Amino acid sequence: MGNETGANSNSSPVQGDIADLVRAMLEQNRLREQQMEQIITKLMDNQKTTTPMMLPNLTKTIPMFNGETGDTDAAAEWLNALKTAAQLNGWPDESTLEARRSYLEGAARNWYLSHMVELNTFAKFSKSFKAMFMAPEEVTETWKRMYERVQQKNETVFAYFHDKVRMCRRLKLSMSETKKMICVGLHSRDMLSALMSNGHVREEELMADIREYNEVSLIRGERFRSTSTPSRQLLAAKSTSVPKVGTDKQNTITSSRIKKELRKTYDGPRCYNCQLTGHVARDCTQPRRPLKCTKCKLEGHTSKYCEVANTPDVSLVSCQTKSKFMYYIKEVRINDNKKTVRGLVDTGSAFTIITKTIAKSYGLEVRPKTVNMYVYGNAQSIASYGETQATINIDEVSELITLVVVDDQIQQYDIIIGRSFTDCENVTFIKTTDQLQFAYCMMMPYQEGGVPYESTSKQIVRVVGENENIPANSMKMIKVNAGDHDVEVMLINEEDTAIRLNRDQSVGVIRGGRKSTENNHDVKTPITTEMVKYGSTLSSDEVDRLVHLLNRYRECFAFNLNELGCTDVLAMNIVDDGKPVMSKPYRASASERETISRIVQEWKEAGIVTETKSAYASPVLLVTKKDVDARLVVDYRKLNAQTVRKVFPTPNIDEHLETLHGATLFTTLDLASGYLQVPLTETSKEKTAFITPSESGQFERMVFGLINAPYEFSKLMQRILQPLKNKVAMWYLDDILVPSTSFQDLINRLSQVFDALREAKLTLKLSKCHFGCTEVAYLGFMLSAAGVRPGDQKAIAIQQYPKPKNKHEVRRFLGLFGFFRRFIPRYAEIARPISDLLRDNEQFVWTETQEEAYNNLKDRLVSKPVLQVFNPNADTELHCDASSVGLSGMLLQRGEGKRLHLLHAVSKKTTSAERHYHSSKQELMAVVWSMCRLRPYLIGIKFLVVTDCQAIVHLNTQKTLNPQAARWATLLSEYNFDIKHRP
């Protein structure tokens, strides 16, 4: 018993330890489970609960964009829509780029596909898209679009308001300006009055008033429509009781009774647009409904303006017009073409109208232009297809006019002659009972010239024509004979019955009268054929057309100082140091003083010279020339010495000659006292004051002798004729050259030149003008279709030029002959013996060498060499040569028959250093110098260089180590040429 008890007592501690271990393990498991729950709970808390919802399809908000309208607003709207969709959907760049491709079409899609590689990010795409389709619009264009924006017929006032506000905000307009711009574009007058009577400081206030006005207008319309319902019900009730077929008069309601019943309940005007009462269509705020024709059932017009219903029977119209108005139909020639077209003379038409087919058949250049033409009444306008220019010839009357081109179906006739032709200056038409005849304007009565007579004699005036009739109480120009002359006089019939005059019937007597003392400066003498210098190849018809053109521009010619023009394009300003210059008058003989006084008096009467109180005083002198009237010249040397000089380029003669290719007729124009047609500024007038032995005065116009006069005049001509340069005319100071390829081309070009001169208020001297000549003298040259040669007067001067006797005369000789050096190949080499006389420390000794050179140069120029006119399309060659004496080059072109013709010859002397160059180097220098000298001709064309130096042939193929030769080769790199060796 004792042992068992001892054993049990020894085992109890062990069992207690085990229990503790079990409890500890359970506690750890519990803690571990608790930690796991905490972790799971934390994870669950961090996760967002997704609530299912329906998202809108934002891709539907992206419109298609084609980029073909040029509308920057549409491009900006499309790009913003794409950005918005990308942001709301959270698209990455790849999805956005795919979306842009899907919503581009047309030109925009082609642009994207061509730049797709470099536009690999949306930022690059957006930047490039803005640069291509969203170019910044100018403020003036934005303002113009905003100002022209008005409420359209089918547009609600709300749509108009918000669009106009958007445009005003782009311009950053104030609220008052925005309101004004919105109101001027409203269609409803009543709404405009209502809005302008209230003050608005915010857009919301203005919008609220518009909305309130619109709601009141609609409510009022509904109310008045509802009050008129009983009448309509009455009409319906009565109409239902009326049998469709019957004879019971008591049950029949006529249309007049219906209208009478409706009139009883009239509640104001009814709107044609919305059918509501209380307002008319022009004040309706609802969208405009389209007009509909009741005859053709088409929209866009009413029956009153229906072309289908109102189109007359063409055959009937032709039948009626044939007997009564046939003389209004004329045969018309266009641009001197022998083929004629049928034209209708319509003096009520402001335009001359030609059909598209006829314009194209004559090869007329039609420029796109819309001209809205209206007929009588309220008919819709007709838009033109374009416009063109052509010379219209009717009854031998020709005028260059602008024609409006329309579609063929617009008019029945090939051309309608309107006032653009009939109102031309010097064009008239005479209408009788059965005839309509065009003619150039006749001389005004008493302008054609008088009949010579002796004061002591009398001459009987007799009728020349047969059976001349003068209607009752009328006047008529009758051709009569007075002695040996036939003239037209105006006869007046004051009787109430017509008068018939027979041939040789006496109608009056010419007797001597007193000389008229009236000033007839305002009556301009017409230009006659005898006054005009024209080419011998012109026909009589062409001369008549030329004289008519000159009379058409009669104000462009001055026959005396009173007709002299005065431009308003510019005024000459003289700037000096402000110190007046004063001189005593030069002594003059009695006859010279009389001439000076006469010229000054003429200037004063013409307003060119006025009285003066100026402190300036420059003397005058009289210059006389052989076969030329004396000229009064002011000696402005002292004034010029203190005047600030101006610089302005003058035209180059070479530029003139380059434009003559293809010309066959030449015209030269000369201004009448060109300097005197330029006014002076007020501060400059007193500086031009002059003094004569008997009086003084100051100029109102620019005068010869002022140092800056040539530059001011060059500037004037540049401004006036610059648009015509190289295309129509060329000029040098007051000399104008007009080359032309035909007579019609001559007329067209002269018209453009005369228009420019007339606009500038300049006048020409007719006696110095030559028209339509095959050869003319211009700036010392004779110009013709064959080419250019020295002028006849220059050739005579060269032939009569005496042998130089000193160095001064050598300089004069070389100056005269050097002007024509282009005509003489190797001129520098030939003239070197003479030019060497001008070297320093060289005594003047005239030997046989100089004599030979002198005679050689004279013979070459007296033979009248001819230079061909440059043709940029012809085969061109440059022949070069060199020696120790000089360099030379000849520009040649192949003409007809493949023969070479000289265009220009250049040459120069070699310097003392250049004489010792190797011959190959001299030849190369000749090529380089000639090409640089003739650069205006050679640049831009391919040409052939011909030389007798074999070494230069390899210039383009072999490199050179010589620095100077390398620099020369660089100079030649801009030319396109080949080199050929000439043995």
From TrEMBL:
<dbReference type="GO" id="GO:0004519">
    <property type="term" value="F:endonuclease activity"/>
</dbReference>
<keyword id="KW-0479">Metal-binding</keyword>
<dbReference type="InterPro" id="IPR050951">
    <property type="entry name" value="Retrovirus_Pol_polyprotein"/>
</dbReference>
<dbReference type="GO" id="GO:0003723">
    <property type="term" value="F:RNA binding"/>
</dbReference>
<dbReference type="Pfam" id="PF00098">
    <property type="entry name" value="zf-CCHC"/>
</dbReference>
<keyword id="KW-0238">DNA-binding</keyword>
<dbReference type="GO" id="GO:0071897">
    <property type="term" value="P:DNA biosynthetic process"/>
</dbReference>
<dbReference type="InterPro" id="IPR001878">
    <property type="entry name" value="Znf_CCHC"/>
</dbReference>
<dbReference type="Pfam" id="PF17919">
    <property type="entry name" value="RT_RNaseH_2"/>
</dbReference>
<dbReference type="InterPro" id="IPR001969">
    <property type="entry name" value="Aspartic_peptidase_AS"/>
</dbReference>
<dbReference type="GO" id="GO:0004190">
    <property type="term" value="F:aspartic-type endopeptidase activity"/>
</dbReference>
<keyword id="KW-0863">Zinc-finger</keyword>
<keyword id="KW-0548">Nucleotidyltransferase</keyword>
<dbReference type="InterPro" id="IPR021109">
    <property type="entry name" value="Peptidase_aspartic_dom_sf"/>
</dbReference>
<keyword id="KW-0064">Aspartyl protease</keyword>
<dbReference type="GO" id="GO:0015074">
    <property type="term" value="P:DNA integration"/>
</dbReference>
<protein>
    <recommendedName>
        <fullName>Reverse transcriptase</fullName>
    </recommendedName>
</protein>
<dbReference type="GO" id="GO:0016779">
    <property type="term" value="F:nucleotidyltransferase activity"/>
</dbReference>
<dbReference type="InterPro" id="IPR043128">
    <property type="entry name" value="Rev_trsase/Diguanyl_cyclase"/>
</dbReference>
<dbReference type="InterPro" id="IPR000477">
    <property type="entry name" value="RT_dom"/>
</dbReference>
<dbReference type="GO" id="GO:0003677">
    <property type="term" value="F:DNA binding"/>
</dbReference>
<dbReference type="GO" id="GO:0006508">
    <property type="term" value="P:proteolysis"/>
</dbReference>
<dbReference type="InterPro" id="IPR043502">
    <property type="entry name" value="DNA/RNA_pol_sf"/>
</dbReference>
<dbReference type="GO" id="GO:0008270">
    <property type="term" value="F:zinc ion binding"/>
</dbReference>
<keyword id="KW-0255">Endonuclease</keyword>
<keyword id="KW-0862">Zinc</keyword>
<keyword id="KW-0645">Protease</keyword>
<keyword id="KW-0511">Multifunctional enzyme</keyword>
<dbReference type="InterPro" id="IPR041577">
    <property type="entry name" value="RT_RNaseH_2"/>
</dbReference>
<keyword id="KW-0540">Nuclease</keyword>
<feature type="domain" description="Reverse transcriptase">
    <location>
        <begin position="604"/>
        <end position="783"/>
    </location>
</feature>
<keyword id="KW-0808">Transferase</keyword>
<dbReference type="InterPro" id="IPR036875">
    <property type="entry name" value="Znf_CCHC_sf"/>
</dbReference>
<keyword id="KW-0378">Hydrolase</keyword>
<feature type="domain" description="CCHC-type">
    <location>
        <begin position="270"/>
        <end position="286"/>
    </location>
</feature>
<dbReference type="Pfam" id="PF00078">
    <property type="entry name" value="RVT_1"/>
</dbReference>
<keyword id="KW-0229">DNA integration</keyword>
<keyword id="KW-0694">RNA-binding</keyword>
<keyword id="KW-0460">Magnesium</keyword>
<dbReference type="Pfam" id="PF13650">
    <property type="entry name" value="Asp_protease_2"/>
</dbReference>
